[in-house]
Amino acid sequence: MPQNLNLTPINLPMELKFEETPSTVFYNNLEAIKVELVDSPTRSQALNVAWQYVKATWADHHDDTNPATTSLQELSANLEDVLNFRALPTPMECLGFTFKLSGLSFQEVTHIIRHRAGSFAAQCTGDRDLRNDPAVIPEAVQNSPEFLERWINLVNESKQLYADMTDSKAVSMMDARMILPKAMTSFYLMRLNLKDLLGFISQRQDMQIQPAADNLLAAYMAKELLKVLPEASSRISFDKPDMHYVKTFRVPDGQGIFTLSGTNLYCPEPYNYLFVYHHDYSIY
């Protein structure tokens, strides 16, 4: 159809920032991370679902699964059985948890979306102007003045180039964004059922393989989960050995535990002393 200049203007869902000078607030990459539980079942709902599913197996009548006359202690014990695979684990798949994860660098984003069992909604980068978005800096860089200055300069220069290309309108935001560094932050909504949430926490709490930001995400998500379901404490421990690291650390034949296919980034911490190693086997 032909252009009609008399049409009423529309309101776009994003703010247009053409010709604005870019600005950047820098945060410590760990302090920037925030985790908010935005949706979850109540403890009562979780106890009810777990009881109904488990008791259905031997019920003579559909009313026999009703937990109305069951004590809280019995309901709680039943849920713990479910969580620890001593009873039908299916109820865990019926309980959904939605988190808002913010202050994420691109590195954390790639790690959470790699967990394919989740459902995600992302802060947009295609038609939302990113020139004023924050960026993060690791503590090691913050403690290295020369590297810190170069880090800040590169982020600011890349954002200025982004703004110049976007303002020219010869390069779209979708193309211009490719120049922006991984240190830029964003937020994601992530939904997991209880079984997969426990798996995510267990995987990302590994301090020998996962970066510190992932360890914090796991800890914050565990904290939010335990506020809703204290029974989950029977499945969550941050004191246990990092078994994936232990099982994949590369050592001479006969000295390891299982398949040796890791990257050997760090020497083992004392709580992972479950195999024989030499300090030269690791990168750091």
List descriptors.
284 residues; alpha+beta; Gyrase A, domain 2; 2 domains; four-stranded antiparallel sheet; 9 helices; 12% strand
Describe the structure.
- α7 runs antiparallel to α8.
- This protein has helices at residues 43-55, 72-83, 106-113, 139-142, 145-168, 173-176, 194-204, 212-228, 243-248, and strands at 26-28, 34-39, 96-104, 119-122, 135-137, 186-193.
- The chain has nine helices and six strands; from the N terminus they run ββααβαββαααβααα.
- The protein has a four-stranded antiparallel β-sheet. It has a two-stranded parallel sheet with strand order 1-5.
- It folds into two domains: 12-40 and 95-240, 2-Layer Sandwich (Gyrase A, domain 2); 241-284, no CATH class.
- By secondary structure, the protein is α+β, with helices and mostly antiparallel strands.
- The radius of gyration is 25 Å and the shape is flat.
- The chain is 35% helix and 12% strand.
